[in-house]
């Protein structure tokens, strides 16, 4: 959500930015030239020397104009941080072992509240020993991860529903079963009975049940855009399993009363349906804020998800790639980039791996969460 | 909206034309022995043999390579086949009581893939007949056909029925001659009263035409009565009042005698004399295997010989109590008496003998016995009646086939040496070239797959290396069975045939094979984790076998192997005969079945994988290079071995708990409602019923701890760029069941740096092969990795070892970046090298809902353009269809339905050749050969020269073709395998 804001930042052109950095109880204030600052590494060393903490592994974060605490761990987000300063750039330095994962990109509202109250410290109301309870403060991403969405409402018949289930990173099972059945179709020749595939059971506590968007006896019409007509139960099963990382099923709900009617989003006038909130992460009312980036239609989104679910984990051996090791040692071994929302690496894994090619482009940024080198 | 993401490219007419020139799907020929044969016939004039099967197929075999196949519309068993001698026609009787007339029909020349093919003679059904039920007789079985007799003149078909009636059909029109019909009553009237005694004569058991006097037939009834019937006068010439239930009849050549066989295991010889019309007693009556009760003699043949005493051949008749379960056929002449003891049921048999009327004697030359699982031919002219090797119909399945592999373009040198080694094995089974089939009994058989008939070349047994429960030398030679010692003089059994379904030790079973055709190195890997490297030698040798044991668990703790032990070695192995001789044996620990094997003869390396990990072994320096465990820590199942019952135990426990819970619930209910046990039962039944829900499928992504995740599925060696984009070198790739790929950079002394080293020079004696893990790829979807192959800078697969260095193939492009194709069960994906990033992919499962079972990189040549070819990825799915993708773009090209999706063993057995053909097992004993290429097709194109005027099928042109009495050899369509193989 920070992208449009950064554009505004660019417009407010100034030559010098004011930096206020805080490490534990100490503050440092200094200035940076907006145009001649270096990369992230340089900035990192500068801060280490300013705070007299050379060799201490730290995490950098900055407050953007919404008061969001966002991480700085590569050139890209460093530049973003610099460009968004107006004019003050507030840097918060934390020791790495203190709070491993306080950053998140998804909690716009909640973080605003939390940060606003405590003056960018990550403490919530009444927390005296806040430091060691980061999960209470901002919350782990999974606490508010998007698990499902109804998409393409504007193009589907009202009796159909296209549901996307987000499986990434959760340990919840998808939790549903399918069966063969008979579907009744109305044709010009009259009512016709054709074989179909139906949801036969929802597992209690499973992802499918918790979304509330799928129900027993819903007929499955499409799996990730492929019509299931003429496919056997086993084929449909295989298709769903193959797409389980980003499963989009089009169903004809057995209970038609709860159907979504067309939303107001048409007023936004953008090409894609804003209702299909893929990249709008989990802001509660994505439809309302249609900006050109989030209003990417579901196709583009699907494709990018495609990339994500395909990104295979590639580990490389140090001894083969010695030149990279030096490079990566300098980097923080914690992966502080904003992970793509649908991917979360176990901590242990993240700690043992170092990003191989920290995003140089928007494209590779998406993949970063998955391509990891040892 | 979603759909257009997956929309295929629009069709480009030019591309479509190229596709047509490249790809064409044909099922061409079936190799091996017909599954479940049920009928046999022989045409002495055309020298055709026909076999009918239980599935309604008819196959005609002539000279090697001449084959015709016909399939009845209904899959009903063929019970009888009769040739219209010399006409290229045959009649078949099916189990559903229908009679069909088949004809060899000449076809018109046709265009296939732009190439003109000459007309092919094919077998086609032209007529059929169903004997109507007789009005007035309720039982439909009365007109059930029991026997057929086709008169020598080929114009009349006599039909014997269950009801005892004989009917006559005009051939080939298949019309009933009503006035000729002979019902039982007619015969009964002329019977003496004391014989008739009010009982029916029973079904017609046998019909035989008089060998000398046309128009006279013998009719044998089940009860024992035999009638010599004159067709023209419609009068019974003679009656033979047999008392014993009749099984079969046969004439002596002169027509003065006939022999009847009976269900008590005896046979009788009857004299045909014209002076008496009623003959109560046979000339002689014998029960050869008496005096204890014997089984019936199903069929008997009586052949006269020039040398004097007639030759008597009959099946069955064994003493019921002692040998009633044997499948036997007896050959008897004077004092010579042999009981052929087969391993499967005798279906039918015939003799090849002189049929010309002028000859005085039958003088049989050979006996052909069709058994359920094989065809045995006995030489009747050589004393001792030895068996002859057959040129085709070799039982592929003499031991269950576990795996097969195809090697094309075999260098003539290797070919020759294999044939020589095979010849040295004469007397036993011998095996041949391009196809290799692996068997459960630990043998590797080489078959010549270059022609229509799959002929055995050479057989390699791995059993002699190991010590098994029975002495391996016995298991090797099927002719001296341990049973032999127990057997007494009588009956004089002789084991014949090579079908041996029982493996001595299942651990001997062979799972994987890899052959380097240039260095003649062969790697064979088996069920007990044994990996043997063989070298070809023309001399007998008694060298010692090098043995190594490799622990693939790598000190993983918490695992115990509960499967079989590894095989013990023989302390003193016999000298190795010429042929492939074992050089090195590596035994994996735990001794789980080998699931993948790779050989790189140029680097002297073998790689092998089991369900626990994989190993790399340098067989030149005899040292283990690498062992890597692929087990997932949660994977306990892999350790249980193949005999594990853990899963089922878990399941049954769960079920029984469920049942207990259910019964408790119903118990409570009982307390409230009527406390009768019946209600409880009903409740329990209801509860049980709920359990049986309609078929459901759980939708869950594959997780890391699925069982058997560590199984190594594929291994591959490649000279490519793994470290960086400038230095290439030897690499080893391994893929597992859980979507992991391991890539190792190998340090092979001499290799990679100019490829100077061939067999390891002296100066490198101290150097060892080293392996360093380069990359580990975890496919996100975790589907099993089916295949890995490295593509060169042009996107072509790398050549085989030695191919490039010996200028047998164009050298791979090492200047442009290489890529690796990783095919998992769900996706096909090409990654760039050395930085492994996805280039192209095709998500097959997501699109089609099918899973990849087999893939192969195949080169397709254009049928019209001489030098145009394309590398194509052929992919067989679990639905039995073939998907073809271009390389490296992975764009779908064509799709063909190939194997029924229910035919799991067929799909699992499929192998591809490098030029677009393939084989799969249609039955345990038959390979179906298919072709995906429009150019490379191996199929029988046979022509038959007949003396009949061929009525062309009405659909064909009216041109009448004249054939001469001759069977020609098959003409193979252009078979590149063969031609290029012989030029090398």
From TrEMBL, chain A:
Gene3D superfamilies in UniProt: 2.30.42.10, Phosphatidylinositol 3-kinase Catalytic Subunit, Chain A, domain 1
Compositionally biased residues, Polar residues: 289-299, 351-362
Residue stretches of biased makeup (Low complexity): 267-288
Keyword Cell membrane: yes
Location of region: Disordered: 254-308, 351-374
Chain ranges of the PB1 domain: 16-96
Subcellular location: Cell junction, Tight junction; Cell membrane; Cytoplasm
GO cellular component terms, semicolon-separated: apical plasma membrane; bicellular tight junction; cell cortex; nucleus
Pfam families, sorted: PB1, PDZ
Stored InterPro entries: PAR6_homolog, PB1-like, PB1_dom, PB1_Par6, PDZ, PDZ_sf
Composition-biased stretches (Basic and acidic residues): 363-374
Keywords from the UniProt entry: Cell cycle, Cell division, Cell junction, Cell membrane, Cytoplasm, Membrane, Tight junction
Domain PDZ: 162-255
Main location: other
Family to which the UniProt record says this protein belongs: Belongs to the PAR6 family.
UniProt name for this protein: Partitioning defective 6 homolog alpha-like
Organism: Gouania willdenowi
Gene: pard6a
Automatic annotation (TrEMBL), chain B:
Keyword field: Exocytosis, Repeat, WD repeat
Domain Lethal giant larvae homologue: 286-386
InterPro entries linked to this entry: Lethal2_giant, LLGL2, WD40/YVTN_repeat-like_dom_sf, WD40_repeat_CS, WD40_repeat_dom_sf
Keyword hit for Repeat: yes
Pfam family, one: LLGL
Superkingdom of the organism of origin: Eukaryota
Name of the protein described by the UniProt record: Lethal giant larvae homologue 2 domain-containing protein
Gene: llgl1
